[in-house]
């Protein structure tokens, strides 16, 4: 008796006919579960050998489920990128809001006094920074607080300075050598490397160099503020003036140029200006500097930039208005600025010079601007490397100061 029914015989004959013509018939529902029906012998052999049917890649699920998994795998990187992009947008929007709500953050970003570079430096031992003719001491701007000060004597006195005590350094100020009060910029301490290198250059030129850390910087007590920085600079200036009768110059760098013009304006207002003011990498005022700073680039064109950031600086009583101060200064002024300065753009130093050259209070005094070409790569804090610096200073100060008569 035959194993196939009539319908099965017809189906078998149809399959054989389709296979001879290279075609394959899709099995019906009834045939899917029939134990005696399989794919063609060739497909069955390939399935047994490879575990997959022809046209299917290993590890893939057949049909729509496999296609969906392919699409998911391909779209995963885009989902990851979109997630990070959304996080960046949230962060971008959050920072201005946080700064506006907590304005003290903006003050910290202006002063950066919490950044101490180099780290682990003992400011009580300037000799560790290669200054073996420097004395560390402290002054008290207010009862119970102190500011740290370094006094570097002219290099020709370095032998006498070895193992000398505080009284020897103080008495050395009675000599005929000029003194430079150095006011540093934000971040770091009076022991910063580029500052130490400048002390060495100035010392080799025969200057006493006195540098301080404002309150809140280095090992000085207190918290930073514009008024406090100016008060500290005035304290040290008066301390020098009591002990030193020879020429006294004020040198400010970067943020210290704002402190320097504040200080010199006060001195001029009370009728005792310094013998000259030297500004290295200066700006006009803190608002213009903040707007030109590289850190503000990503927000510079944000609607409300002034309200979020610049007004917040003013809310902390931080102005450093050198552009206004030059209208109240009456002493020789020298400005040094590198064309490739990315921190305080060159055009701000040039703008300040233009304002100073038109100042009525500075008429009759020498006002000089010295640019340094971008090809020299002095940037923001390496003007001390210039071999022309000694000549620039000696030329400017000789013109600015009365000549000592020959004996």
From TrEMBL:
Alphabetized GO MF terms: monoacylglycerol lipase activity; phosphatidylcholine lysophospholipase activity
Bias type Basic and acidic residues, positions: 28-56
Transmembrane segments: 84-102
Domain Serine aminopeptidase S33, residue spans: 177-292
Family annotation (InterPro entries): AB_hydrolase_fold, Hydrolase_4
A cellular component term, taken from the record's GO annotations: endoplasmic reticulum membrane
BP term (GO), one: monoacylglycerol catabolic process
Protein keywords: Glycoprotein, Hydrolase, Lipid metabolism, Membrane, Transmembrane, Transmembrane helix
Pfam families the UniProt entry points to: Hydrolase_4 (PF12146)
Region Disordered: start-end pairs: 1-68
Protein name in the entry: Serine aminopeptidase S33 domain-containing protein
Native source species: Knipowitschia caucasica (Caucasian dwarf goby)
């Amino acid at each position: 008796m035959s194993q196939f029914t009539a319908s099965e015989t017809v189906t078998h004959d149809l399959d054989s006919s389709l296979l001879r013509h290279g075609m394959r018939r899709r099995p019906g529902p009834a045939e899917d579960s029939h134990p005696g029906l399989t794919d063609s012998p060739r497909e069955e052999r390939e399935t047994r050998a490879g575990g997959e049917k022809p046209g299917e890649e290993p590890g893939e699920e057949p049909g729509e489920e496999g296609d969906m998994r392919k699409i998911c795998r391909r779209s995963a990187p885009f989902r990851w990128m979109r997630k990070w992009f959304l996080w960046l947008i949230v962060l971008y929007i959050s920072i201005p809001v946080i700064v506006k709500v907590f304005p003290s953050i903006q003050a910290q970003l202006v002063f950066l006094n919490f950044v101490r570079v180099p780290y682990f430096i003992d400011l009580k031992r300037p000799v560790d920074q290669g200054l073996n003719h420097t004395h560390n001491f402290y002054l008290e701007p207010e009862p119970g607080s102190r500011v740290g000060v370094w006094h570097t004597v002219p290099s020709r006195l370095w032998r006498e300075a070895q193992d000398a005590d505080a009284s020897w350094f103080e008495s050395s100020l009675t000599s005929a050598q000029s003194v430079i009060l150095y006011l540093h910029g934000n971040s770091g301490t009076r022991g910063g490397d580029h500052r130490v290198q400048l002390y060495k250059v100035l010392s080799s030129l025969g200057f006493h160099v006195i540098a301080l850390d404002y309150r809140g910087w280095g090992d000085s007590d207190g918290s930073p503020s514009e008024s406090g920085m100016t008060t500290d600079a005035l304290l040290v200036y008066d301390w020098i003036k009591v002990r030193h009768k020879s020429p006294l110059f004020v040198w400010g760098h970067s943020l210290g140029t704002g402190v320097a013009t504040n200080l010199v304006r006060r001195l001029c207002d009370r009728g005792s200006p310094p013998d000259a003011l030297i500004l290295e990498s200066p700006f006009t005022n803190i608002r213009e500097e903040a707007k030109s700073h590289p850190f503000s680039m990503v927000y510079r064109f944000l609607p409300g930039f002034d309200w979020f950031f610049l007004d917040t600086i003013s809310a902390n009583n931080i102005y450093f208005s050198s552009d206004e101060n030059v209208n109240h200064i009456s002493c020789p002024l020298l400005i040094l600025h590198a064309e490739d300065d990315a921190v305080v753009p060159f055009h701000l130093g040039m703008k300040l010079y233009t304002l100073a050259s038109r100042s009525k209070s500075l008429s009759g005094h020498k006002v000089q601007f010295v640019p340094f070409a971008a090809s020299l790569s002095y940037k923001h804090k390496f003007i001390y490397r210039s071999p022309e610096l000694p000549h620039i200073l000696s030329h400017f100060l000789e013109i600015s100061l009365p000549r000592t008569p020959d004996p």
